[in-house]
Amino acid sequence: MNIHFFANQSIEAQSAKKTLAEKYGHAKLDNADIVVALGGDGTLLSALRATSSTDLPVYGMNRGSLGFLMNTFAPDNLFDSLQSAEKVTIYPLSMNATDINGEIQTAIAFNEVSLLRQVRQAAKLAISIDGILRMEELICDGILVATPAGSTAYNLSAHGPIIPLSTQLLALTPISAFRPRRWKGALLPAKAKIRFDILDADSRPVSATADDFEVRNITSVNIQQSTDLSRTLMFSSGQSLEERILKEQFAW
After folding, report:
1. DSSP secondary structure string, 52-65?
2. Which domains does the chain have, with CATH numbers?
3. Do 109 and 224 form a contact (C-beta atoms < 8 A)?
4. Out of 30, 33, 41, 130, which one is annotated catalytic?
5. How high is the mean pLDDT in each 10-residue block of the chain (252 residues)?
6. Which of 110, 116, 106, 114 is nearest to 46 (CA)?
7. How many C-beta atoms lie closer than 10 Å to residue 234's C-beta?
8. Which of 59, 202, 213, 236 lies at a CB distance of 3.0 to 4.6 Å from 107, suitable for a disulfide?
9. Measured between alpha carbons, how far is 90 from 61 in angstroms, rounded to an integer?
10. Rounded to whole angstroms, how far apart are CA atoms 74 and 62?
11. Which pTM was predicted?
12. Interior CA angle at 31 toward 66 and 70, to 5°?
């Protein structure tokens, strides 16, 4: 088994990479069978994007501050852990964001695409689903679209629902909605095409972020599940992502 180790720049992660590479060898990406990401959830997402041209599975080991998607750092018997690991396929979101200059920026998001106000004034957004205008005006700090894998991240902090992987749903979750005040968001089919139009974009600027890729001063955003990209995550035996998501719903 040829392993490519991917680590963030922290001392802890780099030290772990050196230790593991000395023990198990470090393969170049084009010769690897698997990618082991060392860091937190952000590092795992970076590893998925950095290796998006491959179909290599990714196994995360926690050497960071957040690690819902990461396995416990256990440097001994890594080969055994990888061979017995459970696999899950995830599908990212595809984002096309148009800015005030008419330029279009594209990105993928394995967790969520979030829109956030850039100034003290609340954002004003119009929401369309599959070409149908569903909300003429949402006044809020922002809004996000989360995948099932990302539903326990920013989405959960914004009081959005936790989504089991098998449901083929997306979470549409407002962030501090002011009008309509009682709107809590929606669950959408995974195949839904979502569009946000920014109202008063000049005086109430909004940014769009796909995981950690940000576009500022946008006028519209189109989001849908990617149809040509999927990735495989690996989790230690008995600690599948589905099980973690289920446990999170009973956490206090």
Report:
1. TTS---EEEEE-SS
2. 3-90+230-248 (3.40.50.10330), 93-225 (2.60.200.30)
3. no
4. 41
5. 95 96 96 96 90 92 84 93 92 96 96 97 98 98 95 92 89 96 94 97 97 95 92 88 82 72
6. 110
7. 21
8. 213
9. 18
10. 9
11. 0.85
12. 15
